[in-house]
What we know:
Helix content is 6%, strand content 29%. By secondary structure, the chain is mainly beta. The chain has a single domain (10-155), classed as Glucose Permease (Domain IIA). The strands form 2 sheets. Strands 1, 2, 4, 5, 6, 7, 9 and 10 form an 8-stranded antiparallel sheet that branches. It has a two-stranded antiparallel ribbon with strand order 3-8. The longest helix has 10 residues, at 146-155. The model has no long low-confidence stretch (mean pLDDT 89).
Amino acid sequence: xxxxxxxxxxxxxxxxxxxxxxxxxxxxxxxxxxxxxxxxxxxxxxxxxxxxxxxxxxxxxxxxxxxxxxxxxxxxxxxxxxxxxxxxxxxxxxxxxxxxxxxxxxxxxxxxxxxxxxxxxxxxxxxxxxxxxxxxxxxxxxxxxxxxxxxxxxxxxxxxxxxxxx
Length: 166
């Protein structure tokens, strides 16, 4: 059984998966707005497989957790803050992350980034988080409702001794 958590309290959700509010296409993730530069806890155990720039999603960290890929998007840049404009500001080839790079292991609750406002699709500091089955999912692959998925994981009853699902 996977050990999952929401990155922030559900009351901080500002836009849900599939929402059409102010959009031409359904929203491909869930947005949490706990405040700019807020440290984002990893939603489950896994491994950082990518830290990259997207003109739309800004700085993105992708975590692999079993067969799932979690995209943490619009991340704040450690060098240039919440409104970093991407690689053009990183002439040394660095990314927004100071301590996290591909290959690093993450435990649930470990820092996965900071809430930012990067990328052209961001309208104020927030975390846009996605869930898919491909490393490409955050950008254009198939995605699923991560909030619904996490709630389903939290509802699974487990043996208090061995932690296996009942």
